[in-house]
Amino acid sequence: MSVFVVSKSPALSGSVKISGAKNSVLPILAGCILTEEECIISSVPPLNDVMVMIDILKKLGATVNYDVKKEKISVCCKDIVSFEEESEDAGKLRASFIVMGALIGRIGKAKIPMPGGCPIGSRPVDLHLKGFQSMGVSIEQEKGFVFADGSSICGGKVYLDFPSVGATENIMLASALLEDTTVIENASAEPEICDLAKFLSKMGVKIQGAGTDTIKIQGAKKLSGVKHKVMPDRIEAGTFMVASAITGGDIILENVIAEHLKPVTAKLCESNVCVEDLGGNKIRVFVKDKLKPVNIKTMPFPGFPTDMQAQFMSLLAVISGTSTITETIFENRFIHAGEMVRMGADIRIDSRSAVIEGVEKLTGAEVRATDLRGGAGLILLGLVSEGETRISDIYNIERGYYNIEEKLKGLGALIERVD
Ligand code: EPZ
């Protein structure tokens, strides 16, 4: 098993190119099921999660050609031969559940394994199922599978009790081939929803309100294949912004959308980090003054993203003073704190709140990447800890970060992958 060995590093400097967004690629790949024509998706990093989704599409009968070097995928779902996903797929990739909406739309039925929970929470899918049911889809659950019969699916009004990203995506996908109109209320407004809406609109779906809490979808009987460039990954970008801040560095990020980074930029600026929009999808992140503690509350977009919580905890662990983090999205998303405390961080957790006292000195330790973003947080902490930090279970990190060690090395970080 490989580990990352991270050592105390100099202030990061230089520029880094941000990859396409994992949480946008996955629903868009599922969306290819909606058409018999070829879709060409570009700016697709070869992440573990992307490879699993490609495998799922192939097992459903899709023809997929992935030019890894060019980060470009051709997907043709002319011959979808199955409406069933295999049980181990859900274990490998929770997001495989969004194939359900596309299969209901394309074939009129789907048999999908219930996705398990994960370290950050139980991750239920009740809102997805309730949404399908309010469109006339009948849902049965047995032996760990969900069977959906969408033979009498119709448009209508879907109210989401919580602005769930996945549920919003699933309903959009299930509505895309319906000629009547579906309205999603209390929808997720995350940027990834807008990217999926852009992709579906190119296919011929009429969508209004993506990026707001009410999305109106009018599908079409037949959708065409499209070319689509995936939006930049705002969470990877945020992670590198924090990498610059925590090391007192000065870096330029290329291929970013500043609008998507607003909540992260606001919190970094509040703690005295300088963020400059250079135009041309570039931003500069640098430190010139002493950083200040801040309080964070994770919220649906445009609030502070839960996917940046662990990375920010690393930064606050070394800013003198008291900071707090309230995690409102997932019920168990502080699991990385225990690993950080082993490196000398002063973090006290009480249910969904964390109190962080900045410390002068951290020491490297043998730690585990408990989950994708927690693992990224440990890398950041390793950059400013005395001695070596050895991070195991790095496959968790590589689910969502392509070539993270090379990108960090390019900025002067001392990080090695050791097999
Ligand atoms: C997406 O997960 C992202 N994953 C997550 O990113 C991200 O943290 C999350 O949205 C929130 O922004 C992908 O896009 C592949 P939700 P998703 O449905 O869709 C509860 C990462 O690090 N809920 O918005 O699963 C749920 O338990 C990952 O890249 C229900 O109760 O998130 C959670 O508490 C981690 N019932 C909250 O809503 C449901 O039916 C938010 O979940 C669905 C969700």
UniProtKB/TrEMBL annotation:
CDD domains recorded: UdpNAET
Modified residues (2-(S-cysteinyl)pyruvic acid O-phosphothioketal): 118
InterPro entries for the chain: Enolpyruvate_Tfrase_dom, Enolpyruvate_Tfrase_sf, MurA_subfamily, RNA3'P_cycl/enolpyr_Trfase_a/b, UDP_GlcNAc_COvinyl_MurA
EC number: 2.5.1.7
Active-site residues per Swiss-Prot or TrEMBL entry: 118
GO cellular component: cytoplasm
Residues the record lists as binding phosphoenolpyruvate: 22-23
Family of this protein: Belongs to the EPSP synthase family. MurA subfamily.
Protein's name according to its UniProt entry: UDP-N-acetylglucosamine 1-carboxyvinyltransferase
Taxonomic source organism: Candidatus Fimicola merdigallinarum
